[in-house]
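Hey Z.,

So I finally got round to the zinc ion thing we talked about over coffee. Here's the setup:
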Amino acid sequence: MNPDVEKLWELQNVLTQLGDREKQLTSKPESFAAIDREWQQANDDMSRLEQSIESLSKERRRVDGELDDQQEMLKKYQGQLMQVKNQQQYAAAWKEIDATRRHVKELEDSELKTMTDVEALQKDLDERRNGSAELKSRWDVAHEAWQHSLGDLRTEVQQLKARAASIEAQLSDGLKRNFYQIFKQRQNVAVARVVSDSCSACRTRVRPALMQQLQRGDLVYCEGCHRILYFEKAQS
Ligand SMILES: [Zn+2]
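And the result:
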């Protein structure tokens, strides 16, 4: 058995575990992800309600302004009514007053409806805010548990990194470079075990001549995927 390949195989295993732990560090566990989704959803619902309330309130302020204008005009027309000189002017002034009154009524109705809508939305929002306190405390507990578990994972990552560094220190620069080049090009697998005379990574058959080289302890590359082959002698 080639001692270099033995080290590369060990390095490969350490790096595989390291990759696995690092992935765990960055992905939410399902136990937390489920409550996190629920919490996000509740927050989205509440901000949608806040936005609706905001835009209705804006509309209400606009209608309010228009209502003021119309009431001013109504006063003006009522003033004019005092100064009419004939029946025709009187009828015309009344027509304006009548139309403006109708407009004022419409605006008042619209304002009332908006106020009722805002009240209903506000009530819904308040209820959701009260209800979300319990959800938030569950979220906090799940988040805390997840963060706590990451501590152990981080320790493990440190240990694996130290292990990888100590193996690398035993390799020649050329071999190390060669290993990492294949590692990057081949989905983080630079060394493949030979199983039943085949490369376990790409299933290419290892020719008998290469098997002999492997048994001699040579550094042999797979003819299919060009990974370094690792061959364990059958235990007898
Ligand atoms: Zn292969």
